[in-house]
Amino acid sequence: MTDSLAGSSDSASLTLGSPPSNSCLSTINSSQTMTGVRIDKWLWAARFFKTRALAARACELGRIQSNSQPAKPARAVRVGELLQIRTDSGEFQVEVLLLSEIRGPAALAQTLYRETDSSREARMKAIEERKAMKVFTPAPERRPSKRDRRKIIQFRSQHGCI
Question: What is the CATH number of the domain that holds 126?
Answer without folding.
Answer: 3.10.290.10
